[in-house]
Amino acid sequence: MNKNREWMKKLAELRKRVIERDRHLQEKAEESDLVNANKEALLEMTGLSAEEIDRIEKDIDAEFTSRRKNLKIITIIGFALLVVIGMVFLYTLLKPLDNTDKATNGGQAIIIEIDSRTHHLGDNPGNEGTVFSRDFTVTDVSRFSSAVIEITFTKWGPNSAEPPRIFINSNPAGTVIENLPAPGTDECWQGPVSDGSYDYNCEYTYKKEILGLLKTGTNNFIIKNKKKGDDFLFRDIRITCIIK
């Protein structure tokens, strides 16, 4: 009994395949009939010979084949470009920061890139806390006659009453507003706020001489909020060292 059932299942599957194959052949036959009908219509309407119509058909088929090949090539090129762009993006995102001193300007200066990315301190959404720290390397501090740290502040700026502070190797290097106009005397100062202070909300680059705070080897940079609710953005932290 079980063998009979198994044979019935196989016959049913075979019948299904035969019907499907017959349908496929009918579709091909219908497509062929349609092509032949179109050819006959062209013969009657245009007066072209059967050979000329066959040649036109071949030309059209060759054109479509060429277009399909071109589309395939364009798709492959587009995919390859996406892969390359993705690899470049990942390399940029994941590569370690090189913050060892490098010579520029014909050996007359050394630029130490501490961090070029944008960071956010404060208590608004997206903040990175109230302290930002990075290590960097100075190969031989005795070579330099000057070392100026630069930090670019963008969009939201520091508060005038309790501005952020900078430290090099745990030594205070100053506040980030000491080179700005007096609070309230510049259109970039916004306020006063509830405590009578102002926020500097224009892009500017803070610069400070810090040679006396550096040492040969590993050094540490810190910028720290003095007021937790003071939100500010900064980027491009670097030190320009002048060779003696």
Given the helix and strand composition, which structural class is it?
A: alpha+beta
What do the pLDDT scores average to? 77
Say what the CATH topology of the largest domain is: Jelly Rolls
SSE string = HHEEEEEEEEEEEE
CATH architecture of the largest domain: Sandwich
- Total number of beta strands: 12
Number of domains: 2
Helix share bin:
25-40%
Rg, alpha carbons: 37 Å
The count of helical stretches stands at: 2
Strand content: 25-35%
- State the separation between the terminal residues, measured CA to CA: 102 Å
Counting copies of identical and different chains, the oligomeric state is single chain
Unreliable stretches covering 5 or more consecutive residues: 91-97
Question: What about the largest sheet?
Answer: 6 strands, antiparallel
| Gross morphology | elongated
CATH class assignment of the largest domain: Mainly Beta
